[in-house]
Design goal:
33 helices; 6% strand; elongated
Amino acid sequence: MNSGGARRLWALAGAAGAFAAVAAGWQVLGDVGLMQYAFAGVTALFGGALAWFQADGADRRAAPRHPVPRELPRDISDFTGRSDELAEIGRLVRGRGRPSGPLVAITGKGGLGKTTLAVRAAQRLAADFPDGQLFVNLRGYDPLPAEPPEVLGNFLRALGTDPRAIPDAPHDREQLLRTLTAGRRLLIVLDNANGPRQVRPLLPGGPDTAVIVTSRVPLSSIEGAHTIVLDLLETDEAVELLSRVAGPARVADDPEAARRLVTLCGHMPLAVRIAGARLAERPDLRVTDLAGRLADERDRLDHLEIGDLDVRSTFMISYRGLSDAQQRAFRLLGLFPGADFTSWPLAALMGVGLREAERHLDALVSAQLLDATGPDETGAARYRFHDLLRALAREQPEPEAAAAAGRLLGAYLTLAAEAEDRFQPGELRKAGAHPRHAVEAAHRDELLRDPVAWFIAERYNVVACVRFAYERELWDAAWELTHIAAPFFEMLATWDDWEAAEELALAGSRRSHNRWAEAITLFDTAALYRDLGRPDEALAAYEEALAGYEASGDEHGRAAVMLGQGIIHRNRRAWDVAAQRLSDGAERLRAAGDHRLAAQARRSLAVVRCGQGRVGEAIPLFQEALAEFRRLGDRRAEAYAWRGLAQAQLDTDDLGAAARSFDKSLELTRQLRDRRGEARALQGLGRVSAADGATAAALRRFAQAREIADESHDQVLAKELDRDVRAVNEA
């Protein structure tokens, strides 16, 4: 019996004794002293009743009706950042007046600090929930995750239910939880859930109990859930966390190394915390030294482990939760050499259809092993790995790696070749021996509706694939992909990317002793040098290419070199040499069946005729080339032919015709996003305005063109524009 019950029994006994005394006195003394005995009895009765109520009140104060659980884990002192998320959780949790209590779901990949954030938020909000706080680790990705009936039993016991009164049936436990939480101001934290199935049975029904859930998977299908998706830390926040764990002095000694270190940690809180702990454990280890160890992706994860903290193990929990096919998709995506990708590269890597690849991508995003980054220029959804997750994918043994790499490069060759066919119709392209891999026709048409947009979206991946092919000694794929991409590199003025690809392709063709591939690559390299304003290097590369074509018996290649050499001499105003090269090249190209390059040669020859003062001969040549380009559907070459014709018309003082032709060129180049071509058309319109005496309009056009020239690092055009501006100002 508890003390409260004993006090109540004592009070009852006192009252009963008083009444017994009154009765005995009455029998002995009769009515003598009647009033005194009555008074004594009433006093005794009142005292007993008072004792009863006092005992009952003391009992109620000593033992509340409901236990108040305080189960939240300890908050960490070095918590960093997440101020916006904390404010949002506070706003959502404190908002009441709903049929059911607030439900906040914190989601994100492993290592982002979901549990830490949930505990920090719950500790801050605890005072708003005087009836207690419940916490459970649902072990969602353990081999034996917590089952809802087990968790419900623990909650019911914490809320004061006699273990013997807890029902066996899961549904009955759910109902009892809703009954016990009704009217109570409780906060429940469900940590590490593996999905809605594990969460739904644990949700109370009343409006006064709030729930915070953490999970690696989306929980948006739970009715009324407000989702907060955690992202990586900002650089300053990551450096602050490193400083708090490792010690401020360590970071202050080399702030640049600290920024480099947190970047190598991918701005992931868990990785940064481990790096800081390693520094704290080793006072002799400099920040820059640890950053150096993490620089090599191949063993980066080995350095992100200390005690019971391990980035690799954290990620592997999600990986093991995938199906066999999804694990294969994850491993094969680790082969992908670029930064981001759409669905068709995965389809090629796996050798499956596009729809199946898309399902695997969705599953990897849901498992927080892949990030969806939104649509690209073609409208296709793109995905990317976090750096540390990519390192994990590349660690996993993949027996199909060689075959998958070949399929991926074959798919890039297929799409790039068709993109170029649509961009430059009629080109006779050199082809290598690497096998193509088919991309579904409907998707191919969708992707390549705008071939320039496709290349813009895939530009960095193309260079990465050239390097990927080179590293795997897939030489034909390396040089051919570079050769196909050259016109896009040129138009977009992406000189660094173009040069990097050409260097790899040239090194590969030489290592494979493929003289013909070497000649093709040298030919494209010469065009790069020409556009960079390095004519001597361009001519030297053309000479080497010519020797390679001659050794290979490629007459078409020899004729194309003559065209390239003629353009260099044209740019140098060596009119006679240029005219000879271009005339011979045009005839040889026509004989080889390359009508597109033959028209290019006639257009360049027309420019030479203008330089020679033979404008009357130039205009028909421009018109012939223009007609051929329009017949082929080559809009870029057509734009350049319009520009050449406009310049000839300007030379004959036909300003109206020149303005119309330059406008045609400007319209086409803008449609194609050919910024250098656009700048040249603007330059031409500026010259027309200058010739017409419209100085302000001319300077405005030159300024627009100069902005593009600076943007594309076109030094040749920049120098020409400087001369144009001086001429206008001096006139």
